[in-house]
């Protein structure tokens, strides 16, 4: 497959488009969370639980993936369990640890909400070559690392108070 010609874009233009996509994603996540009766943080954590597939995450792994404290993740898991979206299961290899698994019927409802979007994204990706998709995937992985580093800087107070 040969790639299509792409219009030139500067890094600033790409960042602007990313900002637009992220902003739309934030609004979309809020609306999906509302539809499901949970908050955005809980939806984000649930997404990681679902993404783990056959290798359920521990609470600590979920905290690391989301950059939340383990205490905050405990609250998230309590809410997800009460809402019927996830369950804690003992870790067969370490009885001190629990693993988080999605409720199968809840997972089906969530996939039903997201599948049309993933289908649309699949159509977008179909217009790119495997090499172009590899660049996109690499960029997202590296950008996530930059986002984690920035979040750490914000949380450290290094940027100082910015409110008036």
Structural class: mainly alpha
Oligomer: single chain
Average pLDDT across residues? 92
- Unreliable stretches: none
How would you sum up the global shape? Answer: globular
Q: What is the helix content?
A: 55-70%
Strand order of the largest sheet: 1-3-2
N- to C-terminal distance: 54 Å
- Main β-sheet, in a few words? 3 strands, antiparallel
Q: What's the helix-strand series?
A: HHEHHEEHH
> DSSP strand (E) fraction?
5-15%
Question: How many strand elements?
Answer: 3
**Rounded radius of gyration (Å):** 19 Å
Number of helices: 6
Overview of this structure, please?
- It is a single chain.
- With 164 residues, the protein is mainly alpha-helical.
- It has helices at 11-36, 40-51, 59-66, 70-82, 104-125, 130-156; strands spanning 57-58, 86-91, 94-102.
- Helix 1 (11-36) crosses helix 2 (40-51), helix 2 (40-51) crosses helix 4 (70-82) and helix 3 (59-66) crosses helix 4.
- It is globular and about 55 Å long.
Question: What is this structure's SSE topology?
Answer:
Elements: H1 11-36, H2 40-51, E1 57-58, H3 59-66, H4 70-82, E2 86-91, E3 94-102, H5 104-125, H6 130-156
Antiparallel strand pairs: 1-3, 2-3
Helix pairs in contact: 1-2, 2-4, 3-4
Summarize the structure.
By secondary structure, this protein is mainly alpha-helical. It is 66% helix and 10% strand.
From the structure above, extract its key features.
mainly alpha, 6 helices, single chain, globular, 164 residues, 3-stranded antiparallel beta sheet
